[in-house]
Amino acid sequence: MRRAHPSRRAASGFALALLLLAGCASAPAPSPRAASGGGAIASEKPTPAVARPGGYYQDDGPGDNPPADLERIPDAEPKAEPLHRFANNPYIVFGRTYVPDVSGRPYVAEGIASWYGRKFHGARTSSGEPYDMYAMTAAHPTLPIPSYARVTNLANGKSVIVRINDRGPFHSDRLIDLSYTAAYKLGLVRTGSGRVRVESIDPANWNNNAIATAAETDDAAWWVQLGAFSLASNAEQMLSRVKVQVAALADRLRLVEGEGVVRLRAGPFASRSEADEAAALVRRLTELAPLVIR
């Protein structure tokens, strides 16, 4: 039996009754727009909120008829969207004030990810959208709504892209709440939680992270090739893993497609000696056998 998940959902009169009767921990309801399963939608000034129990319990999990192949559900596709009118206002939960950051500054943090499933399937999120446990979404206390983030499981290197459309979790030891499918693709469903890295994504620069073709690479530069994959998804997973293991090369990693395969490369490097140093670093920090190419 998994332990109770930290509360994240907004309150209602019914939730208040539960709170009084059961003494449960709860999450905020600063706005009447927030349904019993939805996240907090704050007013312009931080407002203390009554809350309801939330999270996954022994009877939570996938629905009775989940999609046949959750691995094939595509990640969220980053795109420019207007910020929600209300969901990015400051709000208070358990006496703590949260101020969503809408500055557009890059966000990178490591911490514990948890997930929520069928107990909230169909309930309203902080964005006002219904929660879909089979979509690639997540709840975060302060990232803008809506916004996009890459989440990487630090235990296995698996990585997904999610759309932030909800608030929570509100426990000091939790960083992000994932949809059931996002947690499944990261390998976190059975454990209930796991340590992850969360990186915000700027949709305006998202095309810069797309897979390049072989013709788009600089033939005059030196490159370090870390692997070649028949499936782009495997290449993307390896890229996420190497980003964590070899942080010094994170900004130089790219995927290159050609001849039916996707290659993971680091570069470009101006000289052979630079490329050799990078290859040595990869060998020292990973189990890969990189090749220096031009």
UniProtKB/TrEMBL annotation:
Q: Which UniProt keywords apply?
A: Cell membrane, Cell wall biogenesis/degradation, Lipoprotein, Lyase, Membrane, Palmitate, Signal
Q: Name one Pfam family in it.
A: DPBB_1
Q: Which compartment or compartments is the protein found in?
A: Cell membrane
Which parts of the chain span the membrane according to its record?
A: none
Question: What membrane topology term does the record carry?
Answer: Lipid-anchor
Classification via SUPFAM superfamilies: Barwin-like endoglucanases (SSF50685), Sporulation related repeat (SSF110997)
First-level EC class:
lyase
Q: Does the keyword Lipoprotein apply?
A: yes
* The SPOR domain, residue ranges: 216-294
Tell me the segments the record calls region Disordered.
Answer: 27-74
| Leader peptide range in chain numbering | 1-27
The record, for InterPro entries, names: RlpA (IPR034718), RlpA-like_DPBB (IPR009009), RlpA-like_sf (IPR036908), RplA (IPR012997), SPOR-like_dom (IPR007730), SPOR-like_sf (IPR036680)
Per the UniProt entry, the Enzyme Commission number(s) are 4.2.2.-
**NCBIfam families on file:** rlpA (TIGR00413)
Tell me the protein family, please: Belongs to the RlpA family.
- What is this protein's function per UniProt? Lytic transglycosylase with a strong preference for naked glycan strands that lack stem peptides.
Q: Can you name this protein? A: Endolytic peptidoglycan transglycosylase RlpA
Q: Which organism is it from?
A: Thiobacter aerophilum
